[in-house]
Amino acid sequence: xxxxxxxxxxxxxxxxxxxxxxxxxxxxxxxxxxxxxxSYLGMKEKNILIITSEPEAKYISETExxxxxxxxxxCGLGLADVAIVNWLNTEKDYLKIMDTLQVKTVxxxxxxxxxxxLPINFPIFQIQEFDKRTxxxxxxxxxxxxxxxxxxxxxxxxxxxxxV
Length: 164
Fold this sequence. Notes:
Blueprint: H1 10-17, E1 41-42, E2 48-52, H2 62-74, E3 82-86, H3 94-101, E4 105-109, H4 113-116, E5 128-130, E6 133-138, H5 141-146, H6 148-162
Parallel strand pairs: 2-3, 2-4, 4-6
Antiparallel strand pairs: 1-3, 5-6
């Protein structure tokens, strides 16, 4: 008897080859391209992105971080809920940032909507819906902290956005 004449049952083939021998008519699925990592501070548990523009900090200065955490706490949020990205220290491609971080709410501090890459412009503190996301544009946190009128404007927009 030659080796060509050996007959193996389905069970024997399965025992010999396990999951290695698989018949399939499916076409190979191309791998999804991996997006480059975006460096951010926070854990973005609630899909909130905060964009800052600070030349002397990786993400945000310590004094502005203290003010921001106070504002977030008033909204029932914390650093774990947000991702803070310094626009000056990241690739200027808002679509890549949006796709990578999968955010739903974006707060732009000292970065106007057109500079961020949005195809629309809107005034500060206006809640703007675009591309299934909510945007708020505001002056720098430093300016907001120092001006009562700006604080009120930011607070009003945040109350509506986060249902506070």
